[in-house]
Amino acid sequence: MELNMQSVSTPPRAAATVVMLRDTRQGLEVLLIKRHDKSDVLGGAHVFPGGKVDAGDPQLCTPDVLDQTPVALRGQLNEQHLSPTEAAAIFVAAARETFEESGILLVDGASAAQTLTARAMLRAGHDFASVLASTHLRLATCALRPWSRWVTPTMPSMMKKRFDTRFFVARMPAQQTAQHDNHEATASVWLTPRNALSRYWASDIDLAPPQIMSLVHLARHTDVRSVLHAAVTQPPPTIAPEPFDQDGMRITCYPGDPRHSTLTRALPGPTRLLYRNDRFEPESGFDAFFD
Fold first, then answer.
1. What pLDDT, on the 0 to 100 scale, is given for residue 291?
2. CB 275 within 8 A of CB 3
3. What's the pLDDT tens digit per position in 55-71?
4. How confident is the model at residue 37, as a pLDDT?
5. If you ran DSSP here, which 8-state letter would residue 107 be given?
6. Does the N-terminal or the C-terminal CB of the chain have fewer CB atoms within 10 Å?
7. Which CATH architecture has domain 13-290?
8. Which residues of the chain have pLDDT under 70?
9. Dihedral of the alpha carbons of 203, 46, 221, 76, in degrees to the nearest 10
């Protein structure tokens, strides 16, 4: 991935991404999918499943599709400026994009047969609404816990688009397996947060700053239960990175950094990343991810 040097003046588009979690003998693991190399958004990078809110998502914000009311979902996001339908559509987008990109179906009580039918319908070109209607499944929005909100700055480092992305955490459903779509996502892997950062440091995988900082955050947790508990005991922080260039180097600051307009820290780990050695890294090296 190349560093973007162009400013983007368009408003950020609403988007959602899901950090899928599971417990293993190696510890807490997260699912990362590799975006197609030719994608215009983080092409070739390993990311969490997700994407923008589509026009059809608000139409699924109905009692026969959702297990919670739009008003309740808005309260979980802690964003009162959103309408209930706008908030619920973000949850729908999170579930839809996760299914489309990784084959993971976040629904109430799906049988193995229903999951197989849903995946077959998706491969055949049916949209998400048709899949849910035909299988008589309802979204399990209760499985999605708001984790953080990332707003792309007007000088994006890794792309030429802006997004207002709500990050969710969710436990991998029992008796399901991740299966990338071989279209938007060309590979997938489960890794502990620390191993993912180690592979990034070794140039085995590419990561964008929101994924890096999210992995740094998750590395403080030992299991899924710990993450989900943290998600419900504190409102999701808003992270609006503030980049600047100094001595020919791009530096991206996060809340709590002396150069950031918000002085209160929002995340553990470093408060700034430097783009050097063809990657984003803390000023004092790899171990600073875990200080």
1. 84
2. yes
3. 999 999 999 999 999 99
4. 66
5. B
6. C
7. Alpha-Beta Complex (3.90)
8. 1-2, 4, 37, 40-42
9. 150
Rg (CA), the chain: 18
Q: How many CA atoms lie within 13 A of 103 on its CB side?
A: 23
State the amino acid at position 265 in one-letter form.
R
DSSP 81: T
Helices (H), the chain: 70-77, 84-102, 112-123, 128-135, 193-201, 209-218, 224-233
DSSP character for 66?
B
The amino acid occupying position 185 is A
Q: Token pair 């899949």 is at which residue?
A: 131
How many Cβ atoms sit within 10 Å of the Cβ of residue 68? Answer: 17
pLDDT one-digit tens code per residue, 113-153: 888 899 999 889 999 999 999 999 999 999 999 999 999 98
Contact, 98 vs 32, CB < 8 A? no
Cα 8 from Cα 1, distance rounded (Å)? 18
DSSP reduced 3-state for 127: coil
Residue with tokens 């559509």: 89
The confidence score (pLDDT) of residue 180 equals 81
Task: Give the residue from 29, 31, 139, 48 showing the smallest Cα distance to 95.
Answer: 139
Predicted pLDDT of residue 117 = 92
- Name the DSSP class of 116: H
State the Cα–Cα distance between residues 266 and 201, nearest whole angstrom. 24
- Distance set, CA 116 to CA 9, 31, 109 (Å): 43, 20, 14
Domain chopping of the chain, boundaries: 13-290
In 3D space, the residue among 125, 154, 128 whose CA is nearest the CA of residue 54 turns out to be 128
Specify the pLDDT at position 184: 76
Strands 279-281 and 272-276: antiparallel
Q: Which pTM was predicted? A: 0.94
Is the Cβ–Cβ distance between 216 and 267 less than 8 Å? yes
